[in-house]
């Protein structure tokens, strides 16, 4: 049997809306001065923001600075709700002293973890020598 043409099936549906975080690492923490960006179809003036599952008073903005901890989400008509982003008010980790003398002189470095591309990556800064006078 021979077909005269091809049948093309197009599926139409809601397009995903994405909530982006700047700086891009996870977990997002307030001391990093977090900004959220709602990306998707439609215009920024149609954006509705949600914090902790409740409508939040930031309607119509595409980018928002975050100044309180919570779980955030955005929505634009004709699309799906965005992914959720949790922002913590955790304090930054203190520098970790390397083995050294009993006073506060010594070599110090910072360690941290960044969530990137679906996995946690450990980062260490270059050690610095601190001399207390």
From TrEMBL:
SUPFAM superfamilies: Immunoglobulin
Region described as Disordered: 84-104
Signal peptide: 1-19
Ig-like domain boundaries: 32-86
Pfam family, one: Ig_2
Record keywords, A-Z: Signal
Protein name: Ig-like domain-containing protein
Provenance organism: Zosterops borbonicus
Origin organism lineage: Eukaryota, Metazoa, Chordata, Craniata, Vertebrata
């Amino acid at each position: 049997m021979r077909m005269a043409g091809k049948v093309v099936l197009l599926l139409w549906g809601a397009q995903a809306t994405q909530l982006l975080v700047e700086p891009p690492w996870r977990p997002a923490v307030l001391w990093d001065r977090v900004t959220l960006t709602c990306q998707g179809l439609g215009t920024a003036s149609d954006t509705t923001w949600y914090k902790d599952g409740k409508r939040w008073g930031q309607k119509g903005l595409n980018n928002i600075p975050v100044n309180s901890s919570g779980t955030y989400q955005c929505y634009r008509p004709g699309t799906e709700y965005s992914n959720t982003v949790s922002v913590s008010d955790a304090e930054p980790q203190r520098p970790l002293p390397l083995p050294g003398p009993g006073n506060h002189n010594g070599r110090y470095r910072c360690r941290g973890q960044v969530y990137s591309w679906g996995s946690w990556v450990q980062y260490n800064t270059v050690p610095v020598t601190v001399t207390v006078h």
